[in-house]
Amino acid sequence: MTDVTRLTATQVAALIASGEASATEVAQAHLDRIAAVDDRVHAFLHVDAEGALVAARAVDQRRASGEALGPLAGVPVAVKDIVTTRGVPTTAGSKILEGWRPPYDATIVERMRAAGLVMLGKTNLDEFAMGSSTEYSAYGPTYNPWDLTRIPGGSGGGSAAALAAYEAPLAVGTDTGGSIRQPGAVTGTVGAKPTYGGTSRYGLIAFSSSLDTPGPCARTVEDAALLHAVLAGHDPRDSTSIPQPVPDVVGAARQGATGDLTGVRIGLVREFSGEGAEPGVTAAFRDAVDALTKLGAEVVEVSCPHFQYALPAYYLIAPSECSSNLARFDGVRYGLRVGDDGAKALEEVMSLTREAGFGPEVKRRIIIGTYALSSGYYDAYYGQAQKVRTLITRDFTAAFEQVDVLVSPTTPFVAFPLGSRTSDPYQMYLADLFTIPTNLYGGPGISVPCGLSEGLPVGFQIMAPTLRDDRMYRVAAALESAVGTLTPPAL
Amino acid sequence: MAAISREEVAHLARLSRLAVTEQELDLFAGQLDVILQAVARVGEVVAEDIPPTSHSVPLTNVLRDDVEVPCLTPEDALAGAPDAEDGRFRVPRILEEEA
């Protein structure tokens, strides 16, 4: 039989639908692959072999009974460990939640189960999704399958590495400042951040509530669109969920794959098209822009003058929301409790628990957020950051009056060596320079591979107006048809 | 001028219920200073008349009728608790000893 772990999700689904392989065989093949390589990659924090095989057998039975199943029925998926999964350990990459088994599923997990996707397990991440390299996981880093001495991006490095290591054909991530797109870029995979409110946050462990967005990770644009269609849609349990129809992202991806972009206007973000990025990244990006032009797109330069303030605004807004959201980890209702010897009062137990349970990046952000929200500094920091958010939204609105999508490199640099940026947090923050504006605005963004620099993948970012996720899929699939997908070296 | 001192970091850690170590205080004070000076750039462009945006989706209060719906059982709710007693969360004592 074909090595199913090398196939795309679309191909795997076709194999199962035709009866050439059962969902159980496909799940087992991926579990075998995980067993063979994950000690080197460390993409997974928890492999749920038993749950996966039970789910796969259920799909096989439903199919045998003649039930009409969804297009991804039987396809394995890996889920970032910040998404709650009923009865399956969920840690958010933190010691404070070690061993916690949520009593409920996130909405997106419910939807994947209903669609017949088979969850293989939970993937590694920077603690509470705070980081750009997966080095801030309390359970050790994930390694980039392209070069095991380098980072796989963050915070969703585990999900992206699982794809690049052929441990799963699909994965789920969450994107607060680039945590789906940036790992996609540095592992040569596809990562899409849907429109904020287009996918439910119910059951995500909250980091920065006004920015967190779950979305698909895949090895091809069409696969990402198929998973996007499963995840997306209004959820009454999330007050920020948008009660509007999901655009036809799968149709858009298939249209784009024909390689015709006639009539599409693409905006090059002037402020993000050259300076600040490594020369190899810039070169690969420019080649990709040329490829889009050859497909018929009209490329124009657009200025978004306030994008340069997105990074500082983000690093005030996200920590502020995190300092509030993480207050719930107090050792009372779930998770770790330290120092409860009967002699210490609640407040001291709480402080000792949080000291022992949180890692350095989480503590840094909680302290920054507490500072930014404190009396006397609120107007100077948090209040100003919220105004910058208005200016960035205005930049996007003005740009989308001129063009259909905006493009930039996804990251300023290719995967950097593990440990090379952990001593300087602000240098680490620069990894998200190009991805953050879309989070502040709320629109969708996707990273698609566009070539190599120094033998490592470079990502191409496409940003679209709010609720026009279909546009970015069309352009992404067209680019993929022109430059192809990337194949990492054998592990 | 330093934007944030070691003492301020200690104060913020107390407010955040974080019992940080001396080494962490030394480390964080330097790092937070660099970060805060960098993010202070937000003040460069912002004029008084610009309205703040807290959220990209307009938020409204969501209300529902007060009817009973299925929810977690007490066993499920307590399953992840560090400590429980008589079907309730058991917490460390709330009041300090009188000095």
TrEMBL record, chain A:
Q: Which GO terms describe its cellular component?
A: glutamyl-tRNA(Gln) amidotransferase complex
In this chain the Amidase domain maps to: 25-471
**What name does the UniProt record give this protein?**
Glutamyl-tRNA(Gln) amidotransferase subunit A
Q: Which UniProt keywords apply?
A: ATP-binding, Ligase, Nucleotide-binding, Protein biosynthesis, Transferase
Listed GO MF terms = ATP binding; glutaminyl-tRNA synthase (glutamine-hydrolyzing) activity; transferase activity
Active site at 80, 155, 179
HAMAP family attached here? GatA
Organism (species):
Phytohabitans rumicis
On subunit structure and binding partners, the annotation says: Heterotrimer of A, B and C subunits.
The record's comment on protein family reads: Belongs to the amidase family. GatA subfamily.
Q: Which gene encodes it?
A: gatA_2
SUPFAM superfamilies in the record, alphabetically? Amidase signature (AS) enzymes
UniProtKB/TrEMBL annotation, chain B:
Q: Provide a GO biological process annotation.
A: translation
Q: Which UniProt keywords apply?
A: ATP-binding, Ligase, Nucleotide-binding, Protein biosynthesis, Transferase
Q: What is its EC number?
A: 6.3.5.-
Q: Which domain of life is it from?
A: Bacteria
Molecular function terms in GO for this entry?
Answer: ATP binding; glutaminyl-tRNA synthase (glutamine-hydrolyzing) activity; transferase activity
Q: Which NCBIfam families is this protein grouped with?
A: gatC
Q: Which family does it belong to?
A: Belongs to the GatC family.
Q: What is this protein called?
A: Aspartyl/glutamyl-tRNA(Asn/Gln) amidotransferase subunit C
Species the sequence originates in:
Phytohabitans rumicis
